[in-house]
User: What shape does this take?
Amino acid sequence: ASSHILEEAGAGPIMESTTDDQQHTVMFDSDNIQQTGGGTHDSSSRWQKATYDAKSIRQKITFSGRKFDVKTLPVDLYRVYETIKIRSGEEYALTNVFMIRTAIELHRAWHNTLLTAKILQQLKDKFQVRMTWELGVIKLKFHVEDGSHELQYKVPYDYDSEYQDLYMKIAVAYLDGHMTVHQALIYQSETKRGKHTAKSGLFIRDFPGRLLVYPLEAATCAVIFFGGDWYDFGVTALTGFVSGLIEYLLVTIGGSAKLMVDVIVGVSTGLIASLFYRYDGEHTCLPAVFLGTLYWFFYGTAFVLGILEIISGELQTGVVRFLAVAVKTFILSLGTSFGMQIVLDSPKEVWFDTVGNCGTIDLSVQWWRIPLYLACSASALAQYRFPHVDYWRGLSVQLVGYEVQFQIFQALMQRQSRDFLDTASSNTAGAIAAVVFASILQRTVDNVAYYYHARVLQRHKGKFSPFGEFCYKMSEIYIRITNCLGFGKKNDVVYLRMAAKLKEQREEMENPAHSRTEIMLTLEEEIVFIEAIVQAEDLNIWALLMPTLYQLVPGSLIARLWFNTIFLPPLDSECKVIDGTDYNFVKPVQSASHAVFESLLVTAVSLALGTLIGFGVVEYGTYILTKLFCCKNENQPSTSDPNASADSIRTINLRKSSRNFFSHTINENNPSSDLYTIDENDPASDSERNTEDTNVNEEAGFDDDNITETNNDLLQPLL
Assistant: This one.
């Protein structure tokens, strides 16, 4: 980062710029640093002091040099690694491994092929990796070294907001040069082992603690979404707990037993609910119990992702995803029907008779509607393995999306009762509101957290403004309180204590009279420090949005379609008189099943469009506000090429935006892209290619509260 700043500031050619992998110390040949007007500057020590002071504490530390154990890789990946290592060296081979592992875990955590491909493309461009990939619904293919090797993996659904955020942050930290490939791979392995997850999160992350979430989500969904009452709430809690036990048992057995989860869960749900209906007064709302219990197993988000992929041109993946989830839903519905058949003499009549037991509560006038929805949303966050310490973020985004959707639907329901415009409008508005609010929340959290990370990682020297000091103090208090409550990660408090120690050691190291020449960390301290670096990366907005879309999407609408297919609606009879004779015309009622299917498409497409529109609003709204209220900083380092610095910052911002927005495509399937076209005859091309993704502001010490002092320190020798 320092060499990039020197070059952009008009410092002329830097004859030597090497980086020690262990100590992260940048050395310059100060005799060849030129003034802007020509000649050699005689203040080499001042240059070294300026660049030295600009470094964060990360670059002052002598790391232990831990190496990732490649023997832990799968046999096929290890074989490919060894081949690439012989041809192109260890670091390049490990980068290939890192990209494949990142793709697998991101795909498992969010199944969003569009965004996974974008981060892979950024890694490929940055490190010049000769790899292509095909990201399907379940199967992933990697063509390594221009097709010399092909690796295929099957990656099932397992939504995980925490890992989704962490693996993205690890990739961004490696991409921006904040950690080595060995550190990145080791951190990935530690993440899989739960080393960077809070204890409360580990309890809910897997069985048996996960059993507590099933009944809560099932019962709350039955009332808030599917027209159940408090009696149905209790029945659904029981069926939800039983479904969790069944999945726990079959997953523990493993093998072919896992393939039977859907059908056995469906049978148990239909059987238990039918028993309550038959022997307890026949006042159970069976659709509410069924749909609430099976809500966990309906991948509703996949419907919206499928539509987004189709809109974005990934037709095969989008259509296959849509059909695959539809078939999975049919299996659950058919299993439930088998359960009804075991208990009830006439399941079809009961299915239509029980509709009168549903919708007895008018949610629009109930004071507990929002608290119940928040409880339902909290269970969805637990299903998504959302970090407990950040629940307030997820709940706030979910509430905004739901409330906008609910209020607009209520306002349009009477006026447009004969079409689906009320559904489409409310869903689109809800998705837009969720995306915009999540973006605002992300920006706010990142801005507040910036002061904390700048202080503890020593990226800023001196005091912040009063606002910055307030943000830092609030962040520190929040970390301590959440740890006292048992929600936070212990390593956050450990690092707060470490930060004071590192600051003292840095002062000793910079004191010429002191004997300290390096800063060493123990193995545990190094693990905590690397975790602090990863956590300092920007919040991944999709970790907030995925649970919200899960609450908004029609995961259960298609189940109603299948139930109407299994239990055909009764015949519609109409008597007509023709020439004095009465004729009874009988025809099947098809409107019910068709209406559900049409409603499914309307809801899925409107939510997908709302998501795209929301990101468009954020993107162009940010652009307009930036043009209106922001101006170029006069203290920003100048350059002999007035476009060089702006292009570099533009590239960084585009890369960052690409990780969030579907609308961005950076050099993806577009070899003629102007953004990354590099002139081979341009002597600056190689430097730009190596530094285009370096976070200049972060590593150079630029800060809103101290930017004048820091930049002047760097620029003075040039002036």
